[in-house]
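Provenance

Sequences were taken from public entries as deposited. Structures were produced by running a predictor on each sequence independently, with no templates supplied. The record for Polyisoprenoid-binding protein from Cupriavidus necator is shown for reference.
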Amino acid sequence: MKRNSRRGSLVIAAVLAASGIAANLAWAQVDAAKSSVTAVARQIGVPMEGKFRKFDAAVSFDPAKLATSSAKVEIDVSSFEIGDAETTKEVKGKDWFDAAKYPKAVFQSTSIKNGTPGKYDVAGKLTIKGKTVDVVVPATYRQEGAVQVFEGALPIKRTVFNIGDGEWKDTSVVADDVQIKFRIVLAKK
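Predicted structure for Polyisoprenoid-binding protein:
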């Protein structure tokens, strides 16, 4: 398994991410300028999108050998930015990500299988704020010239991970549904 580092936008996603998608071992360099992970939520019905600026990924993917393919994505939650400095600071605080206590969100795949046509189902464990939940990330894979591209979106409920504690538990202000969107672009070494 190769270790890839990415300093730029990720997630599901990553995640959160992370979102955990794997890449063929021959395709081991993450293109930070073309990769991203965002989280999209609604506040009082208005979409808000934030970006994670830092993540690491350890990946191994072969479409002909899905049983031995795997992915691990770690997102630096303190790298999250949502637009203005005050909101960004609050989201990194105790009621939201509690980045000081839980600096990483992690996705670790347990299996990768063919999904609906053109997609892969990446099953795994997503850990945010110390809580681990089984998830399945639907992802696409394609080759674009000299790069491989993995994209997808993972819907989560923020309250399952205690994101938005205290007064923020009220989902009428900030919706419970969050989409972790990711685009991971890998180039040959």
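The chain is about 5% helix and 50% strand.
The chain has a mean pLDDT of 82.
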